[in-house]
Amino acid sequence: MTGPTPRPPRRRDRAATRAALLDAARLRFSRQGFDGTGVREIAGDAGVDAALVFRYFGSKEKLYAEAVRVIAPESAGADPHRPLARLADELLHDVVYGDWRQFDGEHPVLGMLRSSGRPAVRDQLRTQLCEGYLRDFADRLDGEDAELRAELMGALLLGMGVLRSVVGSPALSEAPFDRTRTLVARMVHGLSAADPDPDPGPKSVAGAGS
Questions:
Q1: How do residues 140-168 score in pLDDT, each as one tens digit?
Q2: Which of 21, 98, 189, 207 is the most buried (most CB within 10 A)?
Q3: Which residues contact 100 (CB under 8 A, 6 or more apart)?
Q4: Domains present along the chain, CATH in parentheses
Q5: How far, CA to CA in Å, does 83 sit from each of 48, 78, 119, 155?
Q6: Phi, psi angle pair for 27, to nearest 5°
Q7: How big, in percent rounded to 5, are the helix, strand and coil portions of the chain?
Q8: pLDDT, position 106
Q9: Nearest to residue 160, comparing CAs of 172, 177, 147, 146?
């Protein structure tokens, strides 16, 4: 008698494996940065052979680029008439206060800062910020120095994200969203003014010249 006919090996679900590798990569890169993360670690977390990383993505660098690629919220740039204050409020909610569990709780832009010493990562970060969020800001500003004022707003939001999720500064970490958004709205309003207050000139430093 012959035994039962062996079943053909199960075909690997390419889409599911690729998604599992991306999920594992997001967590590893967020926690450990690019240089601190190994391909074998990512593959081990996904339960597959490390060779599949190179088969599906080509290289660790390309896996990183895809893992951290997050487009600005659809509402951000979709409506060119959306008020700047509303846009800044949405980004405050999503970037600074959002719970990005697939990136270990923080927005991927903040996670990329841990690897920004690498030129390729820095270029990707600059592209995502300057050609995405900040361009949307500048397009909504009138008057002089629109790009500079847009970048100052970006620095405000990014800096808040760093203080809250990376540094863990006490006041901002504990502040509720509704309280923070009120204060941020005041700062955004000041930077949005087409005709800001004139330069008051240099101020004397207490004790200077004494």
A1: 888 899 999 999 999 998 899 888 877 88
A2: 21
A3: 106, 107, 108
A4: 14-67 (1.10.10.60), 74-192 (1.10.357)
A5: 47, 12, 34, 19
A6: -65, -45
A7: 65, 0, 35
A8: 67
A9: 172
Query: How far apart are the C-alpha atoms of 70 and 108, rounded to whole Å?
Result: 7
Please count the CA atoms within 13 angstroms of the CA of 179 that sit on its side-chain side. 6
What backbone torsions phi and psi does residue 141 show, to the nearest 5 degrees? Answer: -105, 140
pLDDT tens for residues 59-83?
998 898 888 776 444 445 556 677 8
β-partners of residue 100 are 105
Q: Pick the closest to residue 191 from 107, 90, 95, 87 (CA basis).
A: 87
* Predicted local distance difference test score (pLDDT) of residue 123: 82
Tokens of 114: 């841990």
Q: In this predicted structure, what is the pLDDT of residue 202? A: 55
Strand partners for 113:
none
d(CA 39, CA 193): 48
